[in-house]
Automatic annotation (TrEMBL):
Cellular component per GO, a single term: ubiquitin ligase complex
Record organism: Elysia chlorotica
Protein name: BTB domain-containing protein
Residues spanning the signal sequence: none
CDD domains in the record: BACK_ABTB1_BPOZ, BTB1_POZ_ABTB1_BPOZ1, BTB2_POZ_ABTB1_BPOZ1
Keywords on record: ANK repeat, Repeat
Lineage: Eukaryota, Metazoa, Spiralia, Lophotrochozoa, Mollusca
UniProt repeat feature ANK, residue ranges: 35-67
Pfam families xrefs: Ank_2, BTB
SMART domains per UniProt: ANK, BTB
Domain BTB: 115-182, 273-344
Length: 476
């Protein structure tokens, strides 16, 4: 429903609604409809400059010489919009704020952090991580166990192996996305066949066919870069990398998830761990690159040696205190796959630990999980929790829930106390001063009112708020 609303807002030019959907509801800006069109394309086609600018600022893809970029440019209603599109030529990555996991993996590939293998492709060195490649591709997993066993440098000098195609393939394995020059597509397809990446082959051939078909119908337009962004790429990436978290578990805990693994225990591939965490006597064999790159807390412990550590065989072992095994298993899952199981009984403990470990992305996931459990009995305590841990989206959702259920909540003592506390935060009160929670609730009551009956209902709720403020002897 939100996605349909997003497309409608872009077609009709409703900037206020679009801002709400993207910034509060966090709807993805690069979604596609059944005609393979994006919100940005419709905004360009309908001539809504302010909508186009907003989408570009939020990371909508619009690169020159790509299918999406050229299509938007060709379909733009005005020259003003075309010039705006051209001025945003540097937009080539998904917005970092909304895709921390993909950005982490992209930087992981580019930064060489804790790399344990180097591929030399006709003399050009490309650093990588055996654990990532083994989890994402059975071909690489097999080669690391056999022909490339114990080799930290792999020479690839075959005449059909081009550095650009190899780097693009690694980009796909690390991030689930690919940007490649049209001249390298054929080489990339050959490499994908060698690596037995059937999904990549299918995606490349399908996108190439669509791009060439569209290009042939637009004289003078030439697409030079092919961009792959499969719809299910993140889910596939999370599923594959989640295996690393499963394999990091101590043996006595593997029975929890063994049925979900695609391998029998004796067939599990090598994972090449380089760090061990001990939690309540349980040892988890992990990878520094995931923990250091995702958390400054673990970076300080591992790289700056602020933690308690000793050797466990060839692996350094770090003892973690103030965290239970149940919670750490979820931390582990998040580190590798950007997701974890957060049921109501444990989500608060995970939130507290995520805050301690400096994991803002996991805190946001906790906020999402908590929102699904929201009801009239816990919404006030939930809004207090959201403020304590800086969960802005959850706080807004709580305010919206209160606005929608105001008659049931406004008489609760904890809600009245929240209003009083917010009012006390306003120092040297003036007529223009406002109470945070009241402001938020009034916004959701008044916004998006379209019919007369909705207006009447909104006015009734606003009167309830005025009556409460009068009862509490507060001006707001």
């Amino acid at each position: 429903m939100d996605i349909q609303d997003l497309f409608h807002s872009c077609k009709s030019g409703d900037l206020h609604r679009l801002q709400y959907l993207v910034e509060v509801k966090e709807v993805e800006v690069d979604v596609r409809d059944k005609w393979d069109s994006t919100p940005l394309y419709y905004a360009c086609l309908c001539g809504h400059r302010d909508i186009v600018e907003f989408l570009l600022e939020k990371g909508a893809k619009c690169e020159a010489n790509t299918f999406d970029g050229e299509r938007c440019l060709y379909g733009a209603l005005t020259d003003e919009i075309r010039n705006l599109l051209k001025s945003f030529h540097v937009i080539s990555k998904r917005t970092i704020r909304r895709d921390l996991f993909e950005e982490f993996l992209r930087r992981l590939l580019e930064s060489k952090l804790h790399s344990d293998v180097v591929f030399s492709v006709h003399g050009e060195e490309i650093h990588a991580h055996r654990c990532v490649l083994s989890a994402r591709c059975l071909f690489f997993a097999h080669m690391f166990k056999t022909k490339w066993h114990d080799r930290q440098r792999v020479e690839l000098n075959h005449s059909n192996m081009l550095p650009g195609a190899f780097k693009a393939t690694l980009q796909y394995l690390y991030t689930g996305h690919m940007e490649i020059h049209m001249d390298l597509v054929e080489s990339c397809v050959k490499l994908a066949r060698q690596c037995e990446l059937s999904e990549l082959i299918s995606e490349l051939e399908d996108r190439l066919k669509k791009t060439l078909s569209w290009e042939s119908s637009k004289p003078g337009v030439r697409v030079t870069t092919l961009v792959l962004s499969p719809e299910n790429s993140k889910e596939t990436l999370q599923r594959d990398l989640a295996q690393l978290a499963h394999w990091a578990l101590p043996e006595k805990l593997t029975s929890w998830i063994l049925g979900e693994l695609p391998f029998e225990p004796e067939m599990m591939p090598l994972t090449y761990p380089d760090i061990c965490f001990s939690v309540s006597g349980n040892q988890f064999t992990c990878h520094k690159t995931f923990f250091c790159a995702r958390s400054d807390y673990f970076k300080a412990i591992i790289e700056d040696h602020f933690g308690e550590a000793e050797l466990n065989g060839s692996l350094p072992i770090v003892y973690l205190h103030d965290v239970t095994v149940d919670v750490f298993v979820r931390i582990l899952s998040y580190m590798y796959s950007d997701s974890c199981d957060l049921h109501p009984d444990i989500v608060t403990d995970v939130l507290v630990t995520a805050d301690m470990y400096l994991l803002p992305g996991l805190k946001r996931l906790c906020g999402v999980a908590m929102a699904t459990c929201m009801d009239v009995s816990n919404v006030v305590s939930m809004i207090q929790t959201s403020r304590l841990f800086g969960l802005v989206r959850l706080e807004s959702q709580c305010a919206e829930f209160i606005a929608n259920n105001l008659p049931k909540i406004i008489g609760q003592e904890d809600f009245k106390q929240l209003v009083i506390e917010d009012a006390s935060q306003v120092k040297g009160r003036e007529e223009t001063d406002s109470i945070d929670v009241i402001d938020e609730i009034r916004f959701y009551i008044s916004s998006f009112v379209q019919t007369y009956s909705e207006m009447e209902e909104a006015n009734d709720k606003l009167r309830l708020i005025d009556d409460l403020l009068e009862e509490l002897d507060i001006e707001g």
